[in-house]
């Protein structure tokens, strides 16, 4: 119980939101890969495929959190995260046409795991960034956040998608979160953080009289993602009309 009380629930909330927004494709992949399985094997295919995908993703995120300590890698990851956030707002392409169904359990499981591995690059970077900025218990936060969000993705994907369609602000908020993480990620890179701390110490501060922590580069990152995504969406709407 003490462990749960000491967890960073803000970071867990970020990880869950990221998983839902960027991991919603998992439900589609699982459905497509298992659609030809016999009824008595379909549940096994879903469960084992999901378990394999979760295990691989946790390993990848654990490596990613460690690699983020390499100089300049956070800058690259932060720029990529900005692009992922903009893409989340601006793109609606269907990328699942090449997911093959199978009537064999192991083949379906392999399809789910491989497809999740290929599609999880954005998710891994975003979750690693959220966990890395959270401080202690990074891997525990990742595992807990993923374990909570995966059932939502698999069994509640229809509800989540309907909520996103009805309240687009959820997607905008999620994309802004990615931009927020990206801004903080870039300026905390070990190659530039000492120079920034010495020359621009006011970039990170507490609002007087409150416990609210403000990171200006993170806010700039969120604004860049939301503003760019809005402009690109408007351009797409004009082109389609």
TrEMBL record:
Chief subcellular location: membrane
Protein localization: Membrane
UniProt-recorded name of the protein: TerC family protein
PANTHER family documented for this protein: MEMBRANE BOUND PREDICTED REDOX MODULATOR (PTHR30238), SLL1022 PROTEIN (PTHR30238:SF4)
Membrane topology term: Multi-pass membrane protein
Pfam families cross-referenced by the UniProt entry: TerC
Highest taxon of source: Bacteria
Organism: Noviherbaspirillum cavernae
Annotated NCBIfam families: R_switched_YjbE
Spans through the membrane: 12-34, 46-66, 137-155, 167-187, 207-232
One Gene Ontology term, aspect cellular component: membrane
Protein keywords: Membrane, Transmembrane, Transmembrane helix
Family: Belongs to the TerC family.
Keyword DNA damage appears in the UniProt entry: no
């Amino acid at each position: 119980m003490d462990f749960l009380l000491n967890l960073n629930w803000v970071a867990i909330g970020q990880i869950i939101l990221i998983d839902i927004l960027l991991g919603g494709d998992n439900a589609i992949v699982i459905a497509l890969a298992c659609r030809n399985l016999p009824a008595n094997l379909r549940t096994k295919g879903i469960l084992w495929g999901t378990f394999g995908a979760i295990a691989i993703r946790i390993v990848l995120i654990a490596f990613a959190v460690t690699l983020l300590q390499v100089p300049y890698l956070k800058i690259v990851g932060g720029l990529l995260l900005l692009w992922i956030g903009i893409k989340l707002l601006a793109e609606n392409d269907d990328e699942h046409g090449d997911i093959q169904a199978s009537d064999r359990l192991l083949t379906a499981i392999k399809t789910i795991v491989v497809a999740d591995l290929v599609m999880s690059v954005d998710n891994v970077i975003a979750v690693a960034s959220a966990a890395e900025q959270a401080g202690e218990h990074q891997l525990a936060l990742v595992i807990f956040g993923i374990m909570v969000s995966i059932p939502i993705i698999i069994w509640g994907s229809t509800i989540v998608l309907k909520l996103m369609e009805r309240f687009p602000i959820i997607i905008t908020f999620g994309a802004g979160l990615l931009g927020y993480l990206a801004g903080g990620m870039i300026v905390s890179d070990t190659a530039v953080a000492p120079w920034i701390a010495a020359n621009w110490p006011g970039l990170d501060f507490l609002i007087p009289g409150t416990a609210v922590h403000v990171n200006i580069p993170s806010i700039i990152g969120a604004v860049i993602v939301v503003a760019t995504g809005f402009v690109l969406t408007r351009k797409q709407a004009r082109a389609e009309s």
